[in-house]
Amino acid sequence: MSEVLVKVENVSKKFSKDFKKSLWYGVKDMSSALFTNQSNQNILRPSEFWAVKDVSFELRRGECLGLIGHNGAGKSTLLKILNGLIRPDEGKITMNGRVGALIELGAGFNPILTGRENIYNNGSVLGFSKKEIDAKLETIIEFSEIGEFIDAPVRNYSSGMKVRLGFAVAAQMEPDILIIDEVLAVGDMNFKLKCLRTIDELLKTTAVIFVSHAMPQISRLCNKIILMDHGSCLYNGNDVSHAIDVYYSKLANNGLQLDLKNEHAELLSISIGNTNDQESIPQIKRLEDLVINLECKVKKEYANPICILSIFDNEQKPIGTLINTNGLKSNISHYDDVYNFYKSKVTISRINLSKGIYSITFLVTEALMFKPLFRVQGVQDFQILSKIDLYPPVEFEGDWE
Ligand SMILES: Nc1ncnc2c1ncn2[C@@H]1O[C@H](COP(=O)(O)OP(=O)(O)OP(=O)(O)O)[C@@H](O)[C@H]1O
Fold it and tell me: Ranges for the ABC transporter domain (predicted)?
């Protein structure tokens, strides 16, 4: 088995929500460290919270650890601790080897120096001699695709250019350990693909720690995963697929207050019919039938309203649409003076979406003119479970001959 390059033992870090208090605690901590043996490190004082709590893991050459979790879960703080930018309050970190890091946009760059000068700066911080950096300079500049801007000060770079240069330096300097935060999200599609391919290549000889909100990237690259929640590890292990399922199920926007009516229509209820009611979000296995039940009322003046259900992925990209082209009229359950009430059940057989969270948008249009009457975005979420991690949302069924 290859050597352990990163060893993290019970690392914790607390912050204060109140800036003045945090300054005061800092002064108190310094004086108690100087004059007494007392330490406040493992207790929380008013307004303090654990940004990272009791995190442990080991990473070997050739392994890639994915750090996932909602905004504010503590991922970047953990990366900064690993990169030595923040000191942990508790725990121990052992890093064996050269660390290349791309953490905060522009961090590690001196804004008044040019890109070229920054490459020399960063290279020397990583322990390379001028001669070694000279030898790598052209590869870095070429990889970053920054062109003649390499001799402009970094403060004039766009965010994408900073990421390009940062990644080029971190990746081309042959790190033993590579730490990459969400910053890759800033790069354009081509550069992102280039970075992912480079990480694939580096993984043969490097230990990679990778933060992302893009689960396809995580499942493609990582063989270890930590799901963070309020600083703690909700999952820490090798089952990347399971951790992604748990992450997705926590992501559902069940608490969202939606306006379910307007002057034309009202959505009375919508539910996924074939799932376990115990779950906070309906879960359906890939290739099972997806059954959607809905009840709505529409003003009688619209005699044959059409219902359209659209499915979006968790990045709000449209995936597909179901159109009730025959209209709702055959689904009238009852009526009053003003409204017709409709009750429908629609089944999508063998839903072949890949694993993830999806949401349904409900739309009623007026039949003849196709005029939208009423729309509710993201009215019902559901989760697709699958053992297979597919990147594209839909798998086509084809006959292979
Ligand atoms: N220097 C700081 N002082 C006080 N609180 C901080 C500091 N840095 C981070 N925090 C807080 O610590 C928590 C964890 O932040 P962190 O940036 O690590 O989250 P994250 O998981 O990386 O989130 P995101 O996905 O949004 O990048 C947040 O509540 C954040 O507000």
Answer: 6-255
CA dihedral (298, 300, 302, 307) positive or negative: positive
Distance from Cα 9 to the centre of ligand 1, integer Å: 21
Quick check: CB of 74 below 6 Å from ligand 1? yes
pLDDT at 221 over 70: yes
How far apart (Å, rounded) are the C-alpha atoms in residues 295 and 371?
A: 20
- Domain match, 281 and 177 both: no
**316 CB neighbour count, 10 Å cutoff:** 10
Q: Whose CA is nearest to atom 30 of ligand 1?
A: 72
Instruction: Identify whether residues 235 and 299 lie together within a single domain.
Output: no
Count of domains forming the chain: 2
> Is any atom of ligand 1 closer than 6 Å to the C-beta of 212?
no
Residues β-bridged to residue 102 = 180
Domain enclosing residue 168, as ranges: 4-12+55-253
- Interval 245-267 mean pLDDT: 79
Between the CA of 365 and the centroid of ligand 1 the distance, in Å, is: 44
Beta carbon of 26 within 6 Å of any ligand 1 atom: no
Q: Residue 172's pLDDT is what? A: 84
> Has the ipTM of the complex gone over 0.90?
yes
Residue 48 counted as domain residue? no
